[in-house]
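Human: I'm a chemist; would you kindly supply sequence and C-alpha cells for a protein?

Assistant:
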Amino acid sequence: MPAYDPADPRPVLSLDADNDAGPRTGVVVEVRVGRAHPGDRLPTLEQRSGVYDWRPVHLTPDGPGATGRFRMEVRSGSTLAFLRVDPHVRARGQGDAVPVDLTMKDGARVLARRHLAAALTTLSIVPTDMDAPARLVRRNGRWAEFDYTITNHSRSDYPRTQVEADVVCVPGPEPCPRETGKGRESKGFRAQWYDGTGWRTVMPDGDLSLSRTLTLPFVALPAGAARTFRFRIAVDPGELDSVFIRELQLHVGVGGTASGASERSHATAPADSFSLR
C-alpha cells in the first residue's frame, strides 16, 4: 500500500531518519501540530513506518495546537516513515499549511528536531481510473483517450483554471517530436479534447510547431467542485517511428488563481505512461 495517494487531499510528510549507529528500537517521536489559521479545527494525525499501515497518533489539545507521540524502530542506515495530516478544514488560498514540529528521542537523549509545514491542498488532478491496465497507442492514426479529474479543495472559486499535458518520448535519444532537416515536425501527431458536445482540436491539426504541450481552454472551477477532462491523441504512420521510442508519457497539470488571491496554485498528476507500437 503506497504511503501517498494522489487522489487523497490530506497532506503527507516524509521522515527520513539517518542512523550511523546500531538499530534503535525504543525511539519516541514527539509531535506538535498547529492550525493553519486561528479558529480552525485542530488537525488529526496518522503515522506509518516499517511494515505497518496507517495508525492514528493520539493528540492532546495544547493551547493553539495539540501534542502527541509515537514509537518507531530506527534501523542502521536510513529509515523512512510518514505522517498524514487531516486538517479538517479547506484551504483559504495557496500557501495555507499546518505547522508540525518533531522531536526524536532515545530515552532522555534528543536525536533530532525538525520543523515541517503540511501544505493544505488547493487543486488536485488525477487520472480518473488510476488502476487501469497498461494502455497502448499504435502508430496507425487511431485515437487513444485519457480522462483526468481536477478538484478544487479550497474555500475559494477558481474562475480560470487550465489543464496542460506535456508529451514525452521514452527512452529517446531522439527528440519528441522528431528532428528533421526542416526543423521539428509532427504532421501526424494530433490531439483533441471533449467539450461535452464534441471533440475539439487542442492544437492546429497537422502542426505541433515548436511545442509538445497540449493546452486546454480555461474553465471555471467553483469551491469544492470537480470536473473531468477527456482528451485523446493519435500518432499517424511514419510519425515517431524510431526504434528508440517505445513509450510515451503524459505529464499533466492544472493551474489557476483563486478569486482575490495573488499567488497562483498548481498541481500535477503522476506521470501516465503507455506503450507506443
About this structure: The chain has no helices and 23 strands. Confidence is low (pLDDT under 50) at residues 179-187, 204-211. The longest strand covers residues 158-171.
